[in-house]
Amino acid sequence: MGDTILEINHLSKNYKDIKAISDLSLKIESQMVYGLLGPNGSGKTTTLGILLGVIRQSKGSFSWFGEGEKDENRKRIGALLETPNFYPYLSAQENLELVAKIKGIDLNPENLDSNSKSIDDVLELVGLTERRKSKFRTFSLGMKQRLAIGAALLGDPQVLVLDEPTNGLDPQGIAEIRDLIIEIGKSGRTIIIASHILDEIEKVCTHCAILRKGELLQTGTISDIIGNQDATLIKLTSNDIKALKTAINQMDKVSIYKEDEGAIIIRTESGTKTSDVNQMFFDKGIVLSALNMFNESLENQFLEIVGKS
Ligand code: ATP
User: Fold this and answer.
1) Structural domains counted in the chain
2) Which residue in 105, 125, 191, 193 could disulfide with 155, CB within 3.0 to 4.6 Å?
3) What are phi and psi of 39, to 5 degrees?
4) Facing residues of 62 across strands?
5) Going by DSSP bridges, is the β-strand pair 288-293/231-238 parallel, antiparallel, or unpaired?
6) C-beta separation of 141 from 173 below 8 A
7) Residue 21 alpha carbon, nearest atom of ligand 1
8) 260 shares a domain with 218
């Protein structure tokens, strides 16, 4: 990590009354695998569209490679915004050759510089060497998506931008795409991925930004944001829930995380023992009828973050 690859400053986009993005600022450094995580409609696609020059922002600015919004810099960015239209009756290889031609990439081995990838290299990377001669229409959805990522990699872009790359795929297809993204990340490219699936972001990204209704809620490393285990969650029940709540509200370092089917889940300092909690409530005259450690799935933690108003 080091060089700034992308800087977004106070970016906003309105569609009439809809604020698709509000005052978004972010910095992405080289070699980060950066996730834009948010539920449907949170502004991920709009953000990527602006960054790739397909949509015009209402306010704010962004700068690729420290050089502003110059069109020529797009050549250094490979993007997959939606499933591209390959030709069904052409093979994987022929489709890639066509994409290279459209992109103006010279594939003549003598003209490829040492970093550039040939079609063979790209097919190998996306695991389609053996199917190179098969017609596109015979491909599974996962293979189509891998070919699309291969097409985005032609010309050796420094940055790869992917919008919901595993949408619609079966579990095996999802796993293959994730492995591929991890592999590409290891090759030193910066990758930006939009997804509404926390698990995906957690598995492949080094950093992420959480968006909700166009607003940035959090940014940081994955462990900062998602794996933040600095609190212990404990589920409590008592015959007198009202008194239990009052007691919680009077306590330091204990807060209500959420209410759950007649029980209350509290958040306490990490490492707090259930016996300590029992004693704390007993001292306040509350008898607990049940008390259990509560493991919240990461997916739920994310829903908690984006669900907060
Ligand atoms: P999804 O994963 O569903 O694509 P997203 O996070 O990518 O969601 P966007 O597609 O960027 O979100 O949409 C953000 C908001 O902007 C939504 O409320 C959406 O309805 C609205 N929006 C997006 N494109 C347009 C458009 N062309 N005209 C009007 N509203 C739009």
Assistant:
1) 2
2) 105
3) -70, 175
4) 8
5) antiparallel
6) yes
7) 14
8) no
Burial 250-277, CB ≥16 within 10 A → b, else e: eeeebeebbeeeebbbbbbeeebebeeb
The CA distance from 309 to 305, in Å, is 9
Q: How far is CA 165 from CA 16, 71, 162, 177, 222, in A?
A: 29, 24, 6, 7, 19
Domain extent at residue 293: 227-308
Count of Cβ atoms closer than 10 Å to residue 245 Cβ: 14
Q: What is the CATH number of the domain that holds 27?
A: 3.40.50.300
CA gap 246, 308 in Å, rounded: 22
CA 185/CA 179 separation, integer angstroms: 10
CA-163 nearest atom, ligand 1: 7
Whether residues 240 and 218 share a domain: the answer is no
User: Both 277 and 261 in a single domain?
Assistant: yes
- Same structural domain, 141 and 78: yes
Q: Which residues are within 8 A (CB) of 106 and not within 5 positions of it... i.e. 6 or more apart?
A: 112
CA of 216 to the centre of ligand 1 (A): 15
Q: What is the pLDDT of residues 205-240, one digit of tens each?
A: 999 998 988 999 888 887 777 655 566 788 899 988
Q: Whose CA is nearest to atom 20 of ligand 1?
A: 41
Q: Phi then psi for 153, rounded to 5 degrees?
A: -85, -10
Query: What Rg value do the Cα atoms of the chain yield, rounded?
Result: 24
Q: Final residue of a domain: which of 225, 248, 270?
A: 225
Place of tokens 């493991």: 295
Given pLDDT bands bounded at 50, 70 and 90, which one contains residue 309? very low
* Ligand 1 pocket mutation, candidates 19, 44, 46, 80, criterion most atoms within 8 A of CB: 46
